UniProtKB/TrEMBL annotation:
Pathway(s) per entry: Purine metabolism; IMP biosynthesis via de novo pathway; N(2)-formyl-N(1)-(5-phospho-D-ribosyl)glycinamide from N(1)-(5-phospho-D-ribosyl)glycinamide (10-formyl THF route): step 1/1
Gene name tied to this protein: purN
Pfam families, alphabetized: Formyl_trans_N (PF00551)
Binding site for (6R)-10-formyltetrahydrofolate: R63, N105
Protein's name in the database: Phosphoribosylglycinamide formyltransferase
Site (Raises pKa of active site His): D160
Catalytic activity annotation: N(1)-(5-phospho-beta-D-ribosyl)glycinamide + (6R)-10-formyltetrahydrofolate = N(2)-formyl-N(1)-(5-phospho-beta-D-ribosyl)glycinamide + (6S)-5,6,7,8-tetrahydrofolate + H(+)
Length: 204
């Protein structure tokens, strides 16, 4: 069994995908025991409350203090897996090292298998830069690549550079804007995040 904490900072459509998968028995043995947002007005918190899930706003003004509070919460709720689903804060190495292979992150770009490296070879053989950090869809558009995607990877102290669990490519279309591309990436992510939890449960 896997007790999940889902961490969000925004709309929480990927949290919703997990809730829907749980409610339709696509994640047998899993359960969301806690939803945390660093933003008080994140719509993800509303989604959690609608489904009667414990949902908390945890301010993130001083990272060390907030991380301590988060660790206490994760222990209290006996969390097995921490899912970063649109979580926009970077954790300290000290935090991450307390949960080895127990934090996974959804990132809206393609990341290599081992997580490291500056380039990624896509299925059509093209070599594309790895877009890490914020605004990955915008970075892909600005770089003029034809393919981007999304990756779920283990979180390690190096940002967006941990080993991948699963990923999917998304083609960039003519006329794409950042919003349109980000939206198409999200459509793919809604099944990718579920697949990632299934994979994690098989390997855990
Ligand atoms: C997702 O596209 C996710 O990949 C991205 O934020 C979006 C959250 O959407 N995450 C990052 O950029 C992390 N650096 P959601 O709130 O609707 O699930």
């Amino acid at each position: 069994p896997a007790r999940l904490a889902v961490l969000v900072s925004g709309s929480g459509s990927n949290l919703q995908a997990l809730i829907d998968a749980l409610e339709s028995q696509q994640l047998p043995g899993a359960q969301i025991v806690l939803v945390v947002s660093n933003k008080a007005d994140a719509y993800g918190l509303q989604r959690a409350l609608k489904h009667r899930l414990p949902a908390l706003y945890l301010p993130w003004k001083q990272r060390a203090q907030s991380e301590q509070q988060l660790v206490a919460l994760l222990r209290l709720f006996e969390v097995d897996l921490i899912v970063l689903a649109g979580w926009m804060r970077i954790f300290s190495a000290e935090f991450i090292e307390q949960f080895p292979r127990r934090i996974i992150n959804l990132h809206p770009a393609l990341i290599p298998d081992d997580g490291s490296g500056a380039t990624f070879t896509s299925s059509d053989g093209s070599i594309i830069p790895v877009f890490r950090g914020m605004h990955a869809a915008r970075q892909a558009l600005e770089a003029g690549v034809k393919i981007t995607g999304s990756t779920v990877h283990y979180v390690t102290p190096e940002v967006d550079a941990g080993p991948m669990l699963c990923r999917q490519e998304v083609p960039i279309l003519t006329g794409d804007t950042e919003d349109k591309l980000q939206e198409r990436i999200k459509q793919v992510e809604h099944s990718l995040i579920v697949e990632a939890v299934q994979l994690w449960m098989r390997t855990a």
